[in-house]
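Justification of computing resources. Each target in the renewal requires a structure prediction run like the one illustrated here; the chain below, 263 residues long, is used simply to show the kind of job we budget for.
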Amino acid sequence: MTILNRFSNTWWVIDLSSDRTSVIALGTHLIRKIIFSKKIIMPILITTFLVFVMYYGSTDDGSLATGIDMLDALILSFFNILISMVYSTSLIKNDVEDRSIINVLTAPLHKGVIFLTYYFSLIVAVSFIMLFTTMFAYMGYFYPAGLTWTRTDYLVSILWLVLISVVVYCAFFITISVMLKRPIYFGLFYLFIWEGFVIMLPGRIGHFTVNHFIRSIGSDLIEHGEISNYVGTSFGMSIIVLIVVWISLLAIGTYLFTNKEFT
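Resulting structure tokens:
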């Protein structure tokens, strides 16, 4: 059995002897496609911007709390969500528009497995991008402030929060991309209105955001900055909620993708 894949406008044939081989071949293709797409210019520009802003912040204050607050506001609460949204809402949609989804569906795999391969390839690629973006932003502030090697534990904590965030947000936005014809518009609404505005409203309505539970976990991992004083949900309950939301989103996305006709 064979599957036709396209990368860099070149077609080739991969011999597949098992479902495992098919998943690895498709996943590798998708990861390369995501990382080396034209969209890579966006995280490069964002990283450059973050390094400049973080460095400027270090020369003005240089305190540990300020550095954590900047990483929280810029990485966790905005750019991490933005990058996850852009890549997640466009991955399947672009394949549908250029008809390459038809070639993917010729793989000897169940459509549900193909959807999950899309998803896990997405989180590998986006996590890789956010790893470097976060590390450069961290170095941009903590190195000039003389805090780099003394508080690497905070870098690890931020990276864990970024990873958890990527896993959940990618599941959310890739499921939305199967449900809606123009998922990017919904994604922008969610980022700027729901996550950006509703979370700041008084009362419990702000708890209905993914970032609420991410920051709740962060309040137990980080002892400086505003995130350390964030009054949210308990650590254990935040983990449980995120796991339930994650599994539910993947189940819905898999079901929709399996029953969707790509013509």
